[in-house]
Write a structure and sequence with these properties.
This protein is mainly α and 240 residues long. It is built from 12 helices and no strands.
Length: 240
């Protein structure tokens, strides 16, 4: 009978945080471009430049911020804004759960402070390395800081000069993050189980995108793929 041992703490390293900052800094360029589009849309909706920049600084959730602009006016439906923000960002519940084996090694204050910087890109990098046997929470901090600063800078620039780049999707820039996430997924471990998880998640997300309300497809795809992984467990390796 094996005795349970306490989980060893996770020690964040400043040098690795700096390297991860530089690693995701190129992705920050594309984040800044969408920040420019958001800044332009925000001032056209009626927000002052400082209000749009403050929202990007404190909220840091691009899709949710764009959605909120459609509900902005002289009277703001606060409960509706909270509901749509929760729906769009509910994928973070699953992302946080995937990182829990590493997060549990941090004190509560550092754990929740770190999650304020969680995005799709730095989560994908951290989780892909975790699947390969390497723990890298520094990617959440360093990469998150790079993307957060890029989002703020893009928003501030867009409030004054956003007309120079009003429609980044017209140049295909909306595909950059998707391609990055796909590259992270393909560079991870491969097995029939993993391939089936991705297939079920992708098909479910596409069907939900066609038939269900906006933004729900992200959660549907994640839950469908997660259920496959839950019921198809890999046998643990036996070490001599």
């Amino acid at each position: 009978m094996q005795s349970s041992q306490p989980t060893p703490p996770y020690h964040l390293r400043g040098d690795r945080i700096g390297r991860e900052f530089l690693q995701l800094l190129p992705m920050g360029l594309f984040v800044a471009i969408f920040g420019i589009a958001y800044g332009l849309a925000a001032v056209q909706t009626g927000l002052a430049p400082w209000q749009a920049t403050l929202m990007s600084t404190t909220v840091f959730a691009g899709a949710a911020q764009f959605a909120v602009l459609g509900m902005w006016g002289s009277e703001v439906a606060l409960l509706a804004i909270i509901a749509i923000t929760l729906a769009i960002n509910s994928r973070h519940i699953l992302m946080g759960a995937a990182l829990f084996p590493m997060l549990q090694k941090l004190p509560a204050g550092r754990r929740y402070g770190l999650l304020l910087l969680l995005t799709d890109a730095n989560w994908a990098r951290s989780y892909q390395q975790y699947q390969s046997g390497r723990e890298n929470l520094e990617a959440i901090i360093g990469g998150g800081l790079a993307l957060w600063l890029a989002w703020i800078a893009g928003t501030a620039f867009g409030t004054y000069f956003g007309r120079l780049l009003a429609d980044p999707e017209a140049m295909g820039l909306d595909m950059v993050l998707g391609c990055f996430l796909l590259a992270m997924a393909l560079s991870g471990p491969r097995s029939r189980r993993i391939l089936l998880v991705w297939l079920v998640a992708g098909v479910s997300a596409v069907l939900a995108w066609y038939w269900l309300p906006p933004h729900v497809h992200v959660v549907v795809g994640a839950l469908a793929g997660g259920l496959v992984g839950l019921f198809w467990r890999e046998k643990p390796h036996v070490h001599d």
